[in-house]
Design goal:
The complex is a heterotrimer of chains A (159), B (115) and C (92).
Chain A (H helix, E strand, L loop, with lengths): L1 H19 L4 H24 L12 H24 L8 E6 L5 H13 L3 E7 L2 E6 L2 H9 L1 H9 L4
Chain B lengths: L2 H27 L3 H27 L3 H31 L8 E3 L5 H4 L2
Helix pairs in contact in B: 1-2, 2-3
Chain C lengths: L1 H21 L3 H25 L6 H24 L12
The chains are: A mainly alpha (159), B mainly alpha (115), C mainly alpha (92).
């Protein structure tokens, strides 16, 4: 626990220094006060629900992010083409996909990745499966094909 | 700034503006809430990414670019979270899907995940 | 050219406003509001560059924060009719 508090405090202090850009005693005091306040509040929140430990993922997200960004670009172009098509050829459907991730953090990343890619939306995550709304048959097939699912599961590592 | 980065940044800004308008058009053209939500996704992801990247090229290396990256990261984390909360609320509320919406219940990875 | 980006963002904001007025359900309106909010963040960022004051990015990030919290608050209000409900007693 103390490590978590220290890490949170250091990150917040770094963010403060980055954004403030002033170096006088008064603003440093404000910064220290804000950091202490936020650390205190987040400790209280941890008692209600333990926050996921993002840093357990290590550097693996660095490999996932470029892939995800490219998927987002491709999906955006597909949906933009649909919008500009005069006949608006959409064929919405609902798909339930079993999430391969074991931790809540992994499932959250998976559901958020689905929503970030236009053409697919995650409606609810229940009992390890995600209810997805897809705009077309192709986007539904893209989710069912499961490469995003497997990549996010690999992101979790062996935990 | 070299001419090439300048040109690239204008291309990014211009196409970002274009995708903003396309997303807005989709918001009006799509027939029901669920389809509109997909159109909203365009303006939240690609348009924001293109415009902020264009600004990053304009700013060059420095504090301004770091701040732009943080704005972008923040949008990419909060936009699907707020979106998911919205879709979940609409779904729980029982907002109707379009009449031609097909329900498929195939489950991917049945062989892998069923341990 | 900053002004072209700004024009695109402003057009999208206008379209989002029209969508928010059209509705029909409250969820459509919140969706349009969310798009409007994201566009506002972009507008602040671009106009900061247009007027040669990139410091406005601080405002852009702040607006992104307020927009997110605001959307969640509105959603919670629509769903429960109350902002101060104790979530540990509900199944959500």
């Amino acid at each position: 626990m103390p490590i978590r508090i220290l890490v949170t405090g250091l990150l917040l202090a770094g963010a403060w220094l980055l954004w403030s850009g002033h170096n006088d005693a008064l603003l440093f005091a404000f910064g220290a006060g804000s950091v202490l306040l936020v650390v205190g509040v987040s400790r209280r929140m941890d008692r209600v629900a333990e926050a996921p430990r993002v840093y357990t993922l290590g550097l693996r997200p660095l490999a996932y992010l470029p892939w995800l960004l490219w998927e987002i670009v491709k999906a955006n172009l597909a949906v933009a083409r649909l919008i500009l098509d005069p006949s608006l050829p959409i064929a919405p459907r609902l798909v339930r996909v079993r999430a391969l991730q074991k931790t809540p953090l992994g499932q959250t990343i998976f559901a958020n990745s689905i929503t970030l890619t236009p053409g697919t939306l995650s409606l609810e995550v229940e009992d390890g499966s995600v209810l997805v709304h897809a705009l077309t048959a192709e986007s539904a097939a893209g989710v069912l094909e499961g490469s995003m699912n497997r990549r996010v599961a690999r992101l979790e590592g062996e935990g | 700034m070299t001419d090439l980065t300048g040109l690239l940044s204008w291309v990014l800004l211009g196409s970002g503006a274009l995708f903003c308008v396309v997303g807005g058009l989709g918001l009006l053209r799509m027939p029901d809430f669920w389809a509109r939500a997909h159109a909203a996704g365009i303006s939240d992801t690609l348009a924001a990414g293109l415009i902020l990247s264009g600004l990053m090229l304009q700013a060059g290396f420095g504090l301004v670019t770091v701040k732009l990256v943080m704005v972008l990261v923040f949008i990419y984390i909060t936009s699907p979270t707020a979106g998911h909360a919205l879709y979940r609320a609409a779904h729980a509320h029982g907002l109707a899907f379009g009449a031609d919406t097909r329900l498929e219940t195939e489950q991917v990875g049945e062989d892998r995940g069923a341990d | 050219m900053f002004s072209v980006a700004m024009l695109g963002v402003l057009t999208a904001m206008l379209l989002a406003l029209v969508a928010a007025v059209r509705g029909p359900s409250v969820f459509d309106r919140i969706l349009a509001l969310n798009v409007f909010g994201t566009k506002t963040v972009l507008l602040i960022a671009v106009s900061g560059f247009l007027s040669g004051r990139p410091d406005w990015l601080d405002l852009a990030l702040l607006y992104a924060l307020v927009n997110f919290v605001g959307i969640i608050a509105v959603l919670k209000f629509v769903r429960f009719g109350d902002l101060g409900r104790d979530d540990s007693q509900s199944a959500s």
